[in-house]
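FW: tagging you since you asked about this chain on Friday. Here's the raw sequence from the shared folder, copied in full. Didn't touch anything.
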Amino acid sequence: MINDTIVAISTKLGVGAISIIRVSGDNAIPLVNKVFRGKDLAKVDSHTINYGFINNGKEDIDEVLVTVMKAPKTFTREDIVEINCHGGIATTLSILDLLIEHGARQAEKGEFTKRAFLNGRIDLTEAESVMDLIESKTDNSRKLALSSLEGNLKKYINSFRDKLKHVLANIEVNIDYPEYYDIEEVTRKELKEVITSLEKDLKNLVTKSEERQIIKNGIKTIIIGRPNVGKSSILNRFLKEDKAIVTDIEGTTRDIVEGSIIFDGIELSLIDTAGIRDTDNLAEKIGVEKSLSLIDKANLIIVVLNSSEELIDNDMFILDKVKDKNPIIVLNKNDLPSKIDKSKLDFKHIVSTNTNTLDGIEPLKEEIKSMFKLSEIKEDNYTYLANERQLTLAKKALKSLGDAKVSLETDAPVDIIEIDLKEVFDILGSITGESYSDELLDELFANFCVGK
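HL: got it, structure written out here
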């Protein structure tokens, strides 16, 4: 129920200097007042911090600072009280239990943000960006989340809807006054301009957003090749630590070895796989099968070849497996004489490296930057569709817009065109939350932490 008062711990539960317990709802101030020994919180000014103690009626539980924020100028647009207590687990849980005893309800996951949405404080894109901001691991992902939180995506989507709203109003006039041919002519002309413009802008938004999913999700990278070509050494060079064991013995890596780095502002998740070869060793065989299964799940495949040896059947098997995956082919050990026949390598991205020097894998790093256009990301305005839900809806709107364009080009009646355009208008509204279902909200906020 949105009219009850909820409570949750908003900081990570554990040993720390401070814990914050958040209370929101119509009864937030009087409820906390019952357990607060200090000023009368009902009489203090909004957005003030008040010193005192939390008391259970028998003894003080903790010395605290209590922040009082009165509606509507709060995150949820309800009265909010935040209790800053010492960060011990026992202390924090004691205060939480005490507030629940006095009538507060334990908040569900994401319920504070859900209330902010339902009370009109934020739209759905801003709500989703709250969790994205919390989970951001890079400066670029932080900027992407913050852009949505500041309402930039909402404004962009609403600019589309405003254009549609205007043209839909003109269609209504055309339908109401069908006897005026000049109205229909003007309406059709405007329809063509608006549909053409919206289709171009929406396509650009979808394309750019798909390209920029790596800002949020990072680049999942697998390093594959036959044994002893230098896969583990390349992983170690990227991570700048000896994460993977390196020996001259074939089959040393039998399971995947993972590590992550922030690479040019993007998280690069690296997986070093078992060397791919025919083997009778059961453990190694399982590792090889696992390596091959990762090919379809990766954003980037790095195939490592030993440039000082001729290509063998195992190499050709691997190259055949990735031929349609746009991999980067690494000719490793370039400090030794090359024996590879490059004419057999029909791939767009081929680099030469070694792991004996500090800058030996720089060509590979530069190829990754170029391949994913990482330099362009730094200059972006970060107004993108941030997740699969938003992208799916935008593509659906784009399809309906295309249907409207076909109807216009085949001289269909304007009221038929109106149906498609209204659908586009409604779908775009679903991105920002102008229309939504309870099931959608439950699913969306289920991924939040409890205190947010």
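FW: The chain is about 45% helix and 15% strand.
HL: agreed, and Residues 277 and 314 are 6 Å apart (CA to CA).
FW: great, closing this out.
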